Amino acid sequence: MSRISRRVSAISGSATLAVDARARAMRDAGRSVVAFGAGEPDFPTPEHIVEAARRACGELPMQKYSPVGGLPALRAAIADKTVRDSGYRVDPSRVLVTNGGKQSVYQVFATLLDPGDEVIVPAPYWTTYPEAIGLAGGVQVPVTTDETTGYLAGVDRLEAARTPRTKALLFVSPSNPTGAVYPPEQVEAIGRWAAGHGLWVVTDEIYEHLVYGDATFRSIATAVPELDDRVVVVSGVAKSYAMTGWRVGWTIGPADFIEAASNLQSHLTSNVCNIAQAAAIAALRGDLTDVAAMRTVFDRRRRTMVRMLNEIPGVVCPEPHGAFYAYPSVKALLGREIRGHRPATSAELADLILAEAGVAVVPGEAFGTPGYVRLSYALSDELLVDGLTRLARLLAV
After folding, report:
1. How far apart are CA 374 and CA 14, in angstroms?
2. What is the CA radius of gyration of the chain?
3. φ/ψ (deg, to 5) at 168
4. Least crowded by CB within 10 Å, which of 18, 59, 85, 315?
C-alpha cells in the first residue's frame, strides 16, 4: 500500500510557481535575477480597496463565519459587475465566491465530471487545468494551436476532437499563457457549435479587462444565450485589480450546478475570508479607473517586450492581444550551441537562460506545447528591459 494516493501522486506542482520560487532562491543567494515567470501585477492594490478591508476588520460580523456561497453583498456585486462588463445577466443566487480562481477551477470540474468524461482543452493551456480535470477523474483532450493561427482553435479543430465521451469545452479568452483573444465572431461560432452538441462550456474570464489595441473581449455566455443552462464562468479579482494575495474568485453557473458546487465547498473550505470579500466588494463596486491605468502600463510593456523579443535571432513572438504574457517560439534555438551547451528542449533552454543570464522564463512544456517559453510583462519597465537585454546578449550568435 503506497504512502501517498495515486490520485495525488499524479499531480505535478505548478511550474510557474516553481520557476518563481527558484528565482527567489537565487536572489536570496545574492544573484541578480529578472523573473518573467509569475503572472502577478507589480502594482499595489488600489488604496480604496485596502481601506475597505481595514474597516471590515473592526466589524463584528466580519469576524464570524459567513455564508458558504459568499457574502450576499459580494454575490450581488459580482452579478452587477458581470452585466456591466459583459452583458451577461444572472441572479446573485447563481454566484459562488471561492478562494481565488484556482479553487473555482478545481470545484467546477469536480462538480461537472464523472470518471472518463472528456474535456476539450485548447493548448497551450494554463498549468492548473489538466491537474484539476485529472483530479476529477476526467480526461483532457488537447487541441494544439501555434503561432501561425495566433494560438486560436477553430470550430473544425474542436469538432475533430469531439467524441461520444466529450462533456465540456474549456474556453479561455484572453488566454494564459499566449495572450490570445478570440474575435467576437469566432466566440459566437464556437459557442453555437458547443450548444448544438449539448456540451458544457467552462469559460475562464479572469483577464477580461486586459485587452489591447483593436482586440475586443466578448463573453461566450453573452454571445450565445442558448448556452445559459450549460455555461460556467470562472473569474476573480486577482489580475485586473492587482489582488493576487487576497484570494477571491467566483463561479457563475446554472442554479443546480452552483448548489452542488456550494455543497462541495461547505466541506472543503467553508466561507472565503470575510475581510478579503469586503475588499472585493469595494473593487467591484468602484469604477474601472485604476484598472484602465494599469492596462495602459501593461500595453506599453507589451509592445516593448514583443519588439525586443522579435529582434533576437531565432525567436518568433506573435503579438499578444490580452492578459500580460508573451509566448514566443524558440524552436529555432534548440540544438544551437549557447555558451558551450546545446539545449534540446525548451525546458533545457529555460534552465540555461536562468543559469547563464539570470532570467527566469517558463518553458512551453508546462503549458502543453514544447518549443516555446512564456514571459510575463507584469513587472517594471526597467526590469523588463534589463531582462530582455540579458536574454538578447545570451542568445546572440
Report:
1. 14
2. 21
3. -150, 155
4. 59
